[in-house]
Structure formats: structure tokens, C-alpha cells
Design a protein that fits this description.
single chain; about 130 residues; alpha+beta; six-stranded antiparallel β-sheet
Length: about 130
């Protein structure tokens, strides 16, 4: 089952075309990933205390429908797979009021040792917190 994160389209999220900006969709994808990790007991401070972090290698975003000011949205995110030092996460943004899927995203994350700026093996205690949902 995916992790659910709720957002609302605020006036500052709306671009000159009258709908949520593409940049805001990306922010919601990133915010949902962090909220998921935090809910599993690993917030940003926990990773920094280890000297490690998740960084994005690649985003694939498919914008399907616009979101408008005041829309309440559900961001659904799940870890699809995990290798030695990376993970793929899938995310969907849905407008519950009409069931419309607004965005589908695939993000390739790499686990890094901050001091070296290089990939690191995902520690077992980190790996075991994230259920894999193909």
C-alpha cells in the first residue's frame, strides 16, 4: 500500500496560466518522499546525523491534468525497488474530488555518503524500514 501525503494548492502555487506550476508538482513529489521516510522514523536530521542522504539521480514526470487553486490533492508514493545503493520510487498525484490522476512520477534515488559525495551501500536498518511495492 502506498504512503499517502495530503497537499492543498495554495495561491502561491498557481502560475500565470492559472494552474499549479510544474515546479510545485515536483516539490510535492519530493515532499511526499521525505514525509514517507519521516513516518518510518528517518527524517532529514536522522540521515544527516549518519553523514548520509538520499539524492535524486533522475526524475521522470508525466503531467496528465492540471490542479487549480484550492484543490486538495493526495500524493501517493511507494518504493518500487531497492538495490545496493539506490532505490526507485513511484509517485502519483490524485485529486480525490473527481478521482483524476494529475501526475505520475518515477524517481531514481541514490544513497550517498555526504563527506565523500559518493554512493554508499544502503544500511540494513534503513533498507528494512521501506516496504518494496512493485
Amino acid at each position: 500500500m502506498p504512503f499517502f501525503h495530503q497537499v492543498e494548492v495554495l495561491p502561491a502555487d498557481v502560475d500565470r496560466l492559472g494552474h499549479a506550476s510544474n515546479q510545485v508538482y515536483l516539490r510535492w513529489v519530493l515532499d511526499a518522499a521525505l514525509a514517507h521516510s519521516t513516518a518510518l522514523g528517518l527524517d532529514e536530521e536522522a540521515y544527516l546525523a549518519r553523514g548520509q542522504a538520499w539524492v535524486v539521480r533522475k526524475h521522470e514526470l508525466t503531467y496528465l491534468r492540471p490542479a487549480f487553486g484550492g484543490d486538495r490533492l493526495r500524493v501517493e508514493t511507494r518504493v518500487e525497488n531497492m538495490s545496493a545503493a539506490s532505490s526507485v520510487r513511484r509517485t502519483r498525484i490524485v485529486r480525490p474530488s473527481d478521482g483524476a490522476v494529475l501526475l505520475e512520477a518515477v524517481t531514481d534515488w541514490v544513497y550517498v555518503e555526504i563527506a565523500r559525495g559518493k554512493p554508499a551501500r544502503i544500511p540494513p536498518d534503513v533498507r528494512e524500514r521501506f516496504p518494496i511495492e512493485p
